[in-house]
Amino acid sequence: QVQLVESGGGLVQAGGSLRLSCAASGIIFSLNTMGWYRQAPGKERDMVANITHDGTTNYADSVKGRFTISRDNAKSTVYLQMNSLKPEDSAVYYCNARRTTLFRTYNYWGQGTQVTVSS
Questions:
Q1: Is the dihedral of CA 71, 74, 77, 81 positive or negative?
Q2: 26, 38, 50, 84: most buried, per Cβ within 10 A?
Q3: Distance from CA of residue 112 to its chain's centroid?
Q4: What's the Cα-to-Cα distance from 7 to each of 80, 82, 99, 106, 112, rounded to whole Å?
Q5: Which of 78, 88, 79 is nearest to 115 (CA)?
Q6: How many Cβ atoms sit within 10 Å of the Cβ of residue 112?
Q7: Radius of gyration of the chain from Cα atoms?
């Protein structure tokens, strides 16, 4: 049974920082691309950042220079360090695990954690 459990969300003032964590179980963590997505009310779920199995990172333009994604394969955990937070960063943040094999793509989601940035 695959589980992705996010933590670290909360309420923070603009300019502040938060660190999200996502602990994975039931998957071969080191083989997965791990990502963070976010969804604000009335909007689509968008990719924030991801990190491949070999450590290559990708970021949405809106968070480049402010957010940092990292992974600890020994702990099966992915992190998202969020600095210089803005009110527009407010959303539910979801952890994602994805792995593509020759036959199919495996795609898993966490339950989400709320991030609220006050102005």
A1: negative
A2: 38
A3: 9
A4: 10, 13, 22, 23, 8
A5: 88
A6: 18
A7: 14
